[in-house]
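FW: tagging you since you asked about this chain on Friday. Here's the raw sequence from the shared folder, copied in full. Didn't touch anything.
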Amino acid sequence: MHSSIPGLGRVMVFLAATLASASLTVAKGWEEEGVQYGQVGTDMTLSCAGAHPSLPVQWRRAGATALPEGSTIRQGTLVLPHASLATAGTYSCHSEDGGLLHTVSLRLGHLPGVPFVSCRASDYENFSCSWTSSVETFLPTRYITTYRKKSLTGEEKRRNKNGHVGPCLQDPSRPGTCTVHGSEFWSSYRLNITEVNPLGSSFRLLDVTMQAIIKPDPPEGLVVEPIPLAPRRLRVSWKYPSSWPKEPHFQLRFRLQYRPVIHCSWSVVETVNLSEVITDAFAGLEHVVQVSAKDFLDAGNWSEWSAEARATPATDLVTTASKETTTDGSQENLAEEPSQAPNPEPINHSDPLEKMAVLVSLGVFAFFILASVLVITTLIWLRVRKHGKDNTKPHNFLVAATHLKALPKAQIL
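HL: got it, structure written out here
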């Protein structure tokens, strides 16, 4: 218990030092000449640079005929009590003769709030984090994004007692996001997202594991095709997302959802293949199909659904030809002519699950028949055996009786 406290102290000291240095660095970047920042609800004091302390000055506000209500001038400085957002603006001080002495732009806002942060890995080598501010500050804001690996090897601990700390790289083309490159799938990381504005800073620490945040991009190249002469089937194929490297030990599994365009409910199937045949499509109806992906070992979350693809099952040519023949008035003449429709081998439209159910039913039926035959055979055998024992007893009685009859009468008496 006591040994863990120094370690926690080192981490807190390290984070405090990081935030302090970050705040100082960012604050220097906002030292704009002629601009003064302030917090809403506080008293603001504007100084008149270049004015002599003993000489009176006049303050004016650009675009307004009067200063904000409650403002006062004390020894050349302008005091604005309980400043609100409406108090912001450009102020200038002037000498008694109206000469311009100084101009200052007052910008008001709020301290940063703790940002909302979420992280996601679209592959097992990199992960990205995005954030949004929890408070509208009305002030220019910057973010400092770093990470630290939590699970360290012995070598890493010897090289750096605080663990590996690096920047979560921000992309100017994607504001509000940063990326950690070269991450390890089985490791844990602590993200530090610090929001800084001219008034101060606030940060959020977020612990992430790659297995929990993995979420692939949607599969690509979705294609849906009718199968010739199969009015209830559609062939669907797709490709791995380009952002997911195809490695033998990091595979994806997929789920397919489909429905007729005119229906609202989806049918869903799962597969590990890159293609699937829909066997229960509605003949003659256009279907909409989508596919999503997930890590093969069920880590993380399902991807978003892919873009829709649509197709209509092929028309059964044999059925169509027979309908046309039925509706034709000259059926006899058409019957004498050779058929123009192809005569393919019949397609088995039965569902694989139905076949399995039939096989199971036949197996159960055969088992009961075999058991019945065995029971009947056993009963017959027991009956025959019992009958044999009964026949043996009379035979012995007759032998004894014959023996007594043959003895002399005197001996009998």
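FW: The first helix runs from residue 4 to 29.
HL: agreed, and The radius of gyration is 45 Å.
FW: great, closing this out.
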